[in-house]
Please model this.
Amino acid sequence: MFLARLAQFGLAGHVDRGLRQGTQVEGRTAGAGQRWGLFWLAFLAVLREGIELSLFLFVVGMQAGARPTLAGGLIGLAAAAAIGWGLYSATLRLNPRGFFSFTSTLLVLFAAGLVGHGVHEFVEAGLLPALSSPVWDIGRLLAEDSPVGSFLKALFGYNADPSLSETIAYAAYLLAVGGALLRHRPLRSAPVAG
Model:
């Protein structure tokens, strides 16, 4: 989590500097060695995925036959091309500052859930005191095993009946990292009168 926070703050500063300088793609200003490194990274990633796909299709083809495997492979390729085109065309209009602001907020909430869950496990193992258990119990309103509760528990560490230790850890993380994120967020510049 600590490394993710460092990467997030560093990336936010990097994106902000790039936006202020008017550069949208760092690959345009990269040197020849960096461009070749980026090329080989992408090439090897695609090659690896292609090998995995061919092995997967080979195994499926041995079980289902050539015609269904070919049809499924072509349908999958067409779907992947459509999704890729859709993502590419959607990201052309994407506001990077808004995107990174939204994903940063989600990452802070996700990491706070991990901290709260970690403290919960330490309390259950007897390594930390619960201080007060439970602080509240809203299990009747939103049970952890309901679809919404399961979703919130998986993403944000939702607990219907948290201990005081969990609540303090969750809130402390949100205040510390959320506050640091807000301090690092650039101020919006006023429009220049023409």
